[in-house]
Specification:
Elements: H1 8-19, H2 24-39, E1 43-50, E2 53-61, H3 74-83, E3 87-89, H4 96-99, H5 102-107, E4 111-118, E5 123-131, H6 143-177, H7 187-199, E6 206-209, H8 216-225, E7 234-238, H9 244-252, E8 253-254, E9 266-267, H10 269-272, E10 277-281, H11 288-300, E11 302-303, E12 312-313, E13 317-322, H12 326-331, H13 337-343, E14 346-349, H14 360-371, E15 377-378, H15 380-388, H16 394-408, E16 413-414, H17 416-420, H18 436-450, H19 455-462, H20 466-481
Parallel strand pairs: 6-13, 6-14, 7-10, 10-13, 15-16
Antiparallel strand pairs: 1-2, 1-5, 3-4, 4-5, 8-9, 11-12
Helix pairs in contact: 1-6, 2-6, 11-13, 14-16, 18-19
Length: 482
């Protein structure tokens, strides 16, 4: 410090310290402490810029009372930010850029430095330092190391912002996840959550398609839970293997004496779900004779109880689900085309488990918590076996597998032998590509999925360069197009 020059070692040490910090406020104050100490500044400020307006984020004052933004030269700060160039004066009184400024005169500023905080996409603001007495370190030779220190500070601020944002998002997710009925963080599930968030606020009909066992009713319940109707009833009706008369009675209710066994008036599910959501599971199995009445309700919100002449109204959102191809059902004459178009306004596809294998560890631990016995985990080999299986029965089959394994295991965790007897074996076929290139491709794509598509993170985990990863992805894309 006696030479009056900032050394690279000082700047590097300060930068390393800054990059170890996380909370934004902590970063702000550490930047100012380090900068003020390094430059012997009496005042140090971090000033942020947004849409041309300046705001004081943090201030460090070694002597006297803390100063405000109005007590520094905002015009010079804006000039430094706009030009993305630092400004330093060894003698503010003699420097024409500073000498006429009222803040310099009134505050008796001798030396000052303004260094822009240049981020990845824009200039975030500026680091402002000044001194009323000590000019020793306010020298042009210190401008470059001071700019380097500002670059470290900018990176630390950006990291801290991402950290704070991530903490807020994680807290929100945890709060939401405590209520969320669906389990999974794979790309297909994140897409599903996003679609549910967009669909839930509307009152339009939703149809959920997908294979058996993928959790279509849970999706329907999640739509209801996140909708304005959440405080009203959610009722479900399975549409398969029910006679026309009984189905109509379940759906719309009946009047006493309308058919044999109708000894009292009965409220239907449409009426019982008033203000809420009615979920019709396996909607393709609704008797054709009842489909016209459901269509009328969807169009007019009107219905009649069986055996009654009174027309009633209900405010109920209809969510349906099926694992059948409704176009095929229409062609076979088993499903009305006009009802299809009325239901198929907001379609959602429930992803099969084989397309979201990275969710299997989360699902396994969720099911083990539900079982609640001595079994608290699963061996890595058993987990790999589960993730290599195709799961034709989807999540329902996985849950049954885990429940059975948890009962029969002799250990405090599920071992591979506990699931092998159930037919859960690593599947290969005569047509499967077992080459090294295929293995490399599968492994890279799996890691990329686990990293949510973040190529930089995936490259680090894989131990390869981001350039090589980009090259391989481009190669596979070209192969798929050829």
């Amino acid at each position: 410090m006696s030479t009056g020059l900032l050394t690279s070692e000082q700047v590097l040490h300060a930068g390393q310290k800054l990059l170890e910090l996380r909370p934004l406020e902590e970063v702000f104050h550490s930047v100012l402490d380090i900068a003020a100490q390094a430059m012997h500044a009496e005042t140090a400020m971090i000033i942020l810029s947004s849409s041309g307006s300046l705001s004081l984020a943090a201030v460090h004052q070694t002597r006297g009372e803390s100063r405000t933004l109005d007590e520094v030269s905002q015009s010079l700060i804006k000039e430094s930010i706009d030009s993305n160039k630092p400004i330093l004066t060894e003698s503010a009184v003699e420097d024409p850029r500073f000498s006429g400024k009222s803040s310099i005169i009134l505050q008796h500023i001798q030396s000052a430095a303004i260094v822009p905080l240049s981020g990845r996409n824009a200039v975030e603001g500026a680091l402002y330092l000044d001194s009323r007495s000590d000019r020793d370190l306010f020298r042009k030779e210190n401008l470059a190391p001071l700019s380097t220190l500002a670059a470290f500070a900018t990176l630390a601020i950006e990291n801290a912002r991402r950290y704070d944002r991530a903490r807020s998002e994680i807290a929100a997710l945890k709060s939401n996840d405590n209520k969320r009925l669906l389990i999974g963080d794979s790309h297909p599930m994140r897409e599903l959550y996003s679609l549910i968030a967009r669909v839930a606020p509307n009152d339009l009909p939703v149809i959920i398609t997908g294979e058996s066992g993928t959790g279509k009713e849970l999706i329907a319940r999640e739509i209801h839970r996140t909708s304005p109707r959440a405080n009203k009833p959610f009722l479900a009706l399975y549409c398969g293997n029910v006679s026309s008369e009984l189905f109509e009675s379940e759906l719309f209710g009946h009047k006493k004496g309308s058919f044999t066994g109708a000894s009292v008036d009965k409220q239907g599910l449409v009426e019982a779900a008033e203000g809420g959501t009615l979920f019709l599971d396996e909607v393709a199995d609704i008797p054709v004779s009842i489909q016209a009445k459901l269509l009328r309700y969807l169009q007019e919100s009107e219905y009649r109880r069986v055996g009654d002449v009174e027309i009633r109204k209900a405010n109920v959102r209809i969510v349906t689900a099926t694992n059948k191809n409704l176009q095929t059902e229409i062609q076979a004459g088993r499903f009305r085309e006009d009802l299809y178009y009325r239901l198929f306004i907001l379609p959602i596809v429930s992803p099969p488990l084989r397309d979201r294998r990275s969710d299997i560890p989360l699902l396994v631990h969720h099911f083990l918590r539900k079982v609640g016995n001595k079994v608290s985990g699963i061996s890595p080999e058993a987990l790999r076996r589960l993730q290599s299986y195709s799961w034709p029965g989807n999540v329902r089959e996985l849950e049954n597998t885990i429940v059975r394994a948890a009962v029969i295991t002799r250990s405090d965790r599920i071992e591979v032998d506990d699931i092998s007897h159930q037919g859960i074996t690593k599947e290969t076929s005569g047509n499967e590509d077992l080459s090294w290139k295929a293995a490399e491709k599968n492994h890279i794509l799996q890691v990329l999925d686990l990293c949510n598509g973040n190529r930089s993170k995936a490259a680090v985990i894989l131990g390869i360069s981001r350039r090589y990863l980009h090259y391989k992805l481009k190669e596979w894309e070209e192969q798929s197009l050829s």
